[in-house]
């Protein structure tokens, strides 16, 4: 019983809780900031905009919300790691939650690349389109790497034997 309490207050768990709370707090701050900026813009401006201000505000809001979503997913992954009791359970839970986080990161990278493409085209800076295209290809590469990882990983940790125990229909 004393060992269980000692593991609850280990350095690993204390820092995991601190980082989890930090990511959740930053996620909430970004969310509140984005909503307040969005509301302030609509209440303090005219209805019709002549300088393409609406797309810029919306693009910035999308970028901020994507970052907040990625931070929230990181919080979820850390919380799952905190509550895992033994190493095998931790490995199985991370194999279930980590791909979801990586998919959110891939979607965030792809959307950020798309937002950059839209922003650069609106500003007529087509010569700078190489950077957002590289970001989009990086997201695609990360997604392919995740697929390869998920294909070979279950065989290495013994999950393949667990899936054989399920009855076939």
UniProtKB/TrEMBL annotation:
Superkingdom assignment: Bacteria
Keywords on record: Membrane, Transmembrane, Transmembrane helix
Membrane-traversing stretches: 15-45, 57-78, 98-117, 129-150
Protein's UniProt name: Phosphate-starvation-inducible E
